[in-house]
Amino acid sequence: MVLVGESADAADDWIAEHISAADVCVTSDIPLAARCLKKGARGVSPIGKQWTLANIGNALAGREIARHLRELGTNTRGPAPLTDRDRSRFLSALDTALQAAMREAARS
Question: Has this prediction a pTM greater than 0.70?
Answer without folding.
Answer: yes
